[in-house]
Amino acid sequence: MSSINPVVQVAQQMLLGGAVKQNHALEHATIVLLSRKFPEVRFSGISFAAGFFVFGDVPTEAILPAAQKALELLRTSQPELAVHERCGTNLAVAGLLTGLSSMVVAKLRRPYSTANNVILASTAALVLARPLGLVVQRYVTTQTPNTSMRILNVKPMTIFGSPAHFVSTDNPDAAGLFA
């Protein structure tokens, strides 16, 4: 049973609290390790304060050892596993930068507000988004799991016809509203 009450779980999700960021890091690291073991499987995931989903058609028995190893590696020798090149954070950063750059250029006075300049600004934003997305992951959307975090269990399920596994975690030190 998670030490985070449901109201705090929702608040953590909305405010990107410590439990969510630590589970996000663990989700990435777990998916990296599973991808190495099952290279033919496409994985994805999503994190919450009480754990994270791993989407991918693999045996449930493979998830727990991968998550435990990922937790160990994040805490010791490979904290960089928290950052993943295909994370949704990268898409969010790219969308935000592209939209903002297009709006700014479109609002400029003539002759700067041309379609060519909007396209140029959008392209430049996309080029900048890749390295910036990784930085945002590292410093905003993921966090190295603290020593109180532990993996409770893995529950297999099917979501919209796709195989999934929910990895439940408990993290008493990150259970507070502003932890």
Give a concise summary.
With 179 residues, the chain is of the alpha+beta class. Helix content is 52%, strand content 16%. The protein contains five helices and four strands; from the N terminus they run ααββαααββ.
Main sheet properties: 4 strands, antiparallel
Regions with little confidence, pLDDT below 50 for 5+ residues: none
* Distance linking N and C termini: 19 Å
Which sequence of strands runs across the widest sheet? 1-2-4-3
> What structural class is derived from the secondary structure elements?
alpha+beta
**Judging from the principal axes of the Cα atoms, what is the shape?**
elongated
Notes on the structure:
With 179 residues, the chain is of the alpha+beta class. The protein is 52% helix and 16% strand. The protein has 5 helices and 4 strands. A 4-stranded antiparallel beta sheet has the order 1-2-4-3. α2 packs across α3 and α4 runs antiparallel to α5. It starts with 5 loop residues before the first helix and ends in a 9-residue tail after the last strand. Pfam families: DUF6391.
Question: How do the helices and strands line up, and which of them pair or pack?
Answer:
Blueprint: H1 6-15, H2 18-37, E1 44-48, E2 51-55, H3 60-75, H4 88-107, H5 115-141, E3 150-159, E4 162-170
Antiparallel strand pairs: 1-2, 2-4, 3-4
Helix pairs in contact: 2-3, 4-5
